[in-house]
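User: Run a structure prediction on this.
Assistant: Running it now.
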Amino acid sequence: MADVPREVPGQADRAIPVGRISGVYGVRGWVRVFSETEPRDNILSYSPWLVGGVAYALAEGRRHGKGVVARLEGCDDRDRAAALIGCTIAVRRDQLPPPSADEFYWADLEGLAVETSAGEPLGRVSHLFATGANDVLVVAGERERLLPFVWDDVVKDVDFDAGVIRVEWDPDF
């Protein structure tokens, strides 16, 4: 397996979505959070949050039932909290811990070119999604392809410096 760089070139200040504000909680400015982190309350380890493009320091937060609730600095009443409903919560890429050698952040893979081991271009990673068995790369090119992210069997190399993912894949498939 190729060495994964500790930092992806040019990505340190990129905003990475990690959740969204899904509702209000109480009358003192707390919000309900839909977290895309694993575990869900891991979202509370990041501050500041970029909410709707505005940086907010996380004042406090906790797990609440199956979800997460939080209070942001400067958001002290229900009306201010309600104004944030539906906003995406993002963090800067450099706030995330570096992945280990065999891990990748989906956000780092999005936009990379995908080519076969023989050098034939297939397109670019538009996004990824999870299935029960493995993650799937959605590659947009002359047509859309769904490639299972299975290391060694399908994905042979991820080269961030070159901006390329090399795969073992029949271009006619």
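The first helix runs from residue 78 to 82.
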